């Protein structure tokens, strides 16, 4: 993740958005993004299917 963030920053990117499913099997993915200092930006309910939200995370680079 850090290497990707460095590459994006080097190319002039200042905001990184990532997304994942709200299904239970993706809890570890959501925790990973939070651990990497991404902030939960939005939750779109029933995006992929009923009871399967889309979680959007954002990290603003320095």
Keywords:
62 residues; alpha+beta; Aminopeptidase; three-stranded antiparallel sheet; 2 helices; 3 strands
Q: Can you characterise this structure?
A:
The protein has one domain: Aminopeptidase, CATH 3.40.630. The two termini are 15 Å apart. The longest helix is centred in the N-terminal third of the chain and has 9 residues, at 2-10. Helices cover 29% and strands 44% of the residues. The chain is of the alpha+beta class and 62 residues long. The protein has a three-stranded antiparallel sheet, covered by helices on one side. It has helices spanning 2-10, 27-35, and strands spanning 15-21, 39-49, 52-60. The mean pLDDT is 97.
Overall 3D form: elongated
Distance between the termini: 15 Å
Cα gyration radius (Å): 13 Å
- Number of structurally distinct domains: 1
- Reported by name, the CATH topology is Aminopeptidase
Widest β-sheet, arrangement of strands? 1-3-2
- In round numbers, the mean pLDDT is 97
Helix count equals 2
Q: Which CATH top level class fits?
A: Alpha Beta
Using the 3D structure, state the CATH architecture: 3-Layer(aba) Sandwich
Instruction: Count the beta strands.
Output: 3
CATH superfamily annotation: Gcn5-related N-acetyltransferase (GNAT)
């Amino acid at each position: 993740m850090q290497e990707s963030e460095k590459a994006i920053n080097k190319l002039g990117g200042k905001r990184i958005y990532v997304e994942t499913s709200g299904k239970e099997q993706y809890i570890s993915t959501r925790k990973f993004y939070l651990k990497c200092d991404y902030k939960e930006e939005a939750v779109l309910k029933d995006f992929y299917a009923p009871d399967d939200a889309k979680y959007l995370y954002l990290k603003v680079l320095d």
